Amino acid sequence: MTVFRTFLKVLNKCKVPIIMYTVMLIFFGGFNMQTSENSTNFVASKPDILIINQDKEEGITKNLINYIEENSKIIEIKNDEEAINDALFYRDVNYIIYIPENYRQDFLDGKNPEIKIKSTGDYQASLAEMMLERYIKVANTYQKNINSEQEIINKINETLSKETQVQITSKLDTNNLKKATFYYNFTNYSILAGCVYVICLILSSFKEEKIAKRTIISSMNYKKYNRHLLLSNSLFAMVLWIFYVLLSFILVGNVMFTEHGLIYIANSFVFNICAVTIAILIGNLVNNKNAINGIVNVVALGSSFLCGAFVPMEWLPDSVLKIAHILPSYYFISSNEMITGLEVVNFEGMRPILFNMGIILIFTIVFVLINNIVSKKKRKIG
Q1: Residue 53 in 3-state DSSP?
Q2: What does pTM read for this prediction?
Q3: Angle, vertex CA 177, rays to CA 270 and CA 170, nearest 5
Q4: I need a labelling partner for 115 at 20 to 30 A (CA). Which of 61, 146, 176, 230 fits?
């Protein structure tokens, strides 16, 4: 109880940083969730295309031009190669189609005339290229089997007018799941920063000369002393974790009442335990209170950037993610990302998430063992 009472007195002095990390979680987590919600709305856009027709605008040639005009935004630029190249360079046009002279007759004769193009190479140009290739492929198919030009044109238009009906069978609330993922990914920083700052400050207070000497000469062995400190710090971390979980119900919403929400909570609980052992180990290694802020930046900020808490994992280079594998934060955030796409909650779907949780628990055990070794050696030195 003596250790616990002293712990509470020191903890009372750490209210400001705890509030600060919570405010950051609400602000940045809320901002990321809002960004996610806005970015999931897809609006189709038409590519900017310039058509340079060197053939007569009739028959199949006219039909090709009409098809492109219906599915793109036609840009008018004077027929000057320098002006055309400038328009392409400055992205005034995404795709340029050169219809060659005598294209219509060559097509009807089965010569498969070549249509030359120029492209910016961006996604709009790729869309234009797919559109052109689709028309040519359909046109060539009918040309081989039909002799009448008008019938070929009718068949082409009939085929290209057909639209595929897409039925979404997934029942996942992906928008809200992404919100939850953004929120819990950011808790990687808030939990680590809160635990490391507060626990390191508490442990540095216990290392003050008077308290340290009393502890060393007391009848309490180092394992029992460590156990009391671990339980006290775990209680603080547990209260902090419960607060962040309750906050997620407010910020994220109804998805937290589902099976997916329960997995987010369980995953964060396992990581929270690991964060406590990391903080205690660092606290036992560092004696200087002034160094704590720097350590928080290195541990919490560093792992958050490397492992995808702030920047989505798919945007990070492979070399960075390979380094991130040595950090427990990587497995915590990776599991959050997996939960977003978890279609059915069963053992097979949960296996990779459970595997990641197991790795985090292994990290936890390793940190506890290292902490006991460090504490034992420091007592002998003292």
Answers
A1: strand
A2: 0.62
A3: 120
A4: 146
